[in-house]
Specification:
Elements: H1 2-9, E1 24-29, H2 30-43, E2 58-60, E3 64-69, E4 72-73, H3 91-109, E5 112-113, E6 120-121, E7 127-131, H4 136-147, E8 152-155, E9 157-159, H5 164-177, H6 182-189, H7 198-205, H8 213-218, H9 223-239, H10 244-253, H11 258-266, H12 271-287, H13 292-301, E10 305-307, E11 317-321, E12 330-335, E13 348-353, E14 360-365, H14 376-400, E15 403-409, E16 412-413, H15 415-419, H16 428-432, E17 441-443, E18 447-454, H17 475-478, E19 490-491, H18 510-527, H19 533-547, H20 553-568, E20 581-590, E21 593-604, E22 608-615, H21 629-645, E23 650-657, E24 662-666, H22 668-675
Parallel strand pairs: 1-2, 3-15, 4-16, 7-11, 7-12, 8-11, 12-15, 19-21, 22-23
Antiparallel strand pairs: 3-18, 5-6, 9-10, 13-14, 17-18, 20-21, 21-22, 23-24
Helix pairs in contact: 3-4, 5-6, 5-9, 10-12, 18-20, 19-20, 21-22
Amino acid sequence: TADAAAEARVGPDPRYLREYALGQSFRTADNVLDFVDRAIDVIGSRELGLDGDAEPHEGQQRPGLVTLWNTIHADSGMEEGETDESWLARHDRKLADRIAMQVKRWMERGFPLVKGKHPRRAGPGDVMILVRKRRELAALIVARLYRHGVPVAGVDRLRLGNPLAVQDLMAALRFAAQPLDDLTLACLLVSPLIGWSQEELLERGYREKGVRLWEHLRKNRHPRVLETLDVLREILRRADFDSPEQLLRWILVGPMDGRRRLVARLGREANDPIDELLNAAIAYGSGHIASIQGFIRWFDAGEGEIKREGGESRDQVRVMTVHGSKGLQAPIVILADAAIGPDSPGDLELEDRARGGDATHLVPIPDLTKEQKVGPLRVAEEVAAAAEMQEHWRLLYVAMTRAEEALFMGGSLGPRDVSRGGPHEDSWYARLKPLFESDPLEDDLWGSRWQWGALTPVFADAPGKQDSVSTDLPGWATSPVRPEARPPRPLAPSGLGEEEGSDPPLRPGHSAKAAQRGVLIHALLERLPQIGPERREALGRQWLGKHAPELPEGDREELLERSLAVLTTGSFGDTFEPNALAEVPLAATVEGRVVAGIADRLLVTPEKVRVVDFKTARRPPFSLEQVPGSTLRQMAAYVAALQKIYPGREVEAAVLYTQTPQLIVLPSELIEQYKARFEEAQESFLLPPVE
């Protein structure tokens, strides 16, 4: 304890734990916090779950505004006698549209903010829209904001299978697995991936009863249908070979251009669900046998959710639940569904204690009627209802204190609310409306509104641009960027083509023996140059005895003798000395073409450069005249590259056929003839055609 610690330290003043209030706010304006204090007084501190009276808040000395918009119902904004029976006439859809129009007006006409060093106009990132519960309204607000051209980040959390972009992509996969499913095919046709309208589907999809839509379309000769059938057949063809991830990527970035189509129709918020669907396909492929049908079953059985961090939305409107907004703030906060009532207690549980023991466990209670809830059940329901009501008011406190300078509240009335004349009596809207003592103001968008406080009359010309200085930009800063020059493709000398012609087969068994000879000689020519001349013969014989014991001793001696002869005879003998280089990467730009390859042996001196390339031809030539043209083009490319790398030095080339072995020196006159031809040869690689 503090007293014991004081005695141990012989200190006169022990430090006791103290309680500090949280009434001081460094982000919210005084006017807004005054409204919060009045709301707490009306609701009651006990209703918020506090043990005592709440302390008054102290905010920042700057303008602040609290506004209550008039409620919206299904017939709001309609002329007298006009009815709308369509599903778009629901009250929550009208509320979402009004909120989006209001935010758009702020962005166009300006909304003054004063927090910071200078007044400024609000931008999309200054607006946070909060909903009481995660329901359809949040997604509707996002859709309406995008429709009105307001940048929006999307809802903070949603199930992976709910976004329309995911549903459209899954429709494509379901069609690939079962093309005879009429509903799936119809959904795919009217999705942005294919782009049919509802009228086109009705006109070209209408058929006799019992005829499958896929079979019907295959008989149609209309150009639009034929174009669509080509895409659908390609999906079916790829489904037989591609994994779910590969098929999705082809749909998104291949000739269908699916991602661009989906984003153009559904907005930038479609990117996150698309990426998460790809991640799900990757996760499925890593733990299961990749199949379209298997992925569909796995996806439908899952409960994957997408969660977006509230602080990640830069200059975009944020839409989230009140619970998800804890710890966040925004200059402008809108409480979108303030007219709904508190949640019901939900499922009840009773504590049961076994006789003769202290152990307890909870027993779930099924749904019961009001008359059936008596005794302990009624007490348990009252306790749960009180706890739910406290959470209801605590969330209101959280929502109101997210606002820095402006708080707006609105709501919509369903048919039941309209019949009883207003919102639920314990809704945020109903309890807070009496706090606005002034007369309502006319509003052409909401009909009327009530205000508490006021905004600053100072307006800036543009968001965050008060300190900007006019600067004359150079021409290159305002002119379009020219297309980037295409870099030359690397040309590998080893890929300069092969001579086509008759080459009779070798005798049975001779091919394998010749290949073994070539490999052994190649290995000797790599190792022997690193050994002194006096030790080459002994170590070479020892190496052959270890790596080719199955060969007769006479054959091994012949291989060793031929290899040593290559190293010591001819003008290229110095190319196999220890100071020469082996397996040398080469790269140079020759007449706009990049030549890249690996030289088997290279000797560089101040006067000349010598290059040797090893060949393991099945039928090696015995003279210069028999050397294939493809080999001559390859060596011409090596010479051209080395002349660029070592300008001013003479470059000599030779070919070593390891099977014989035989070293053939290539005259410079012959090389010059083939240097002019290697540009016309095929490149070392070709991109596969896009299907």
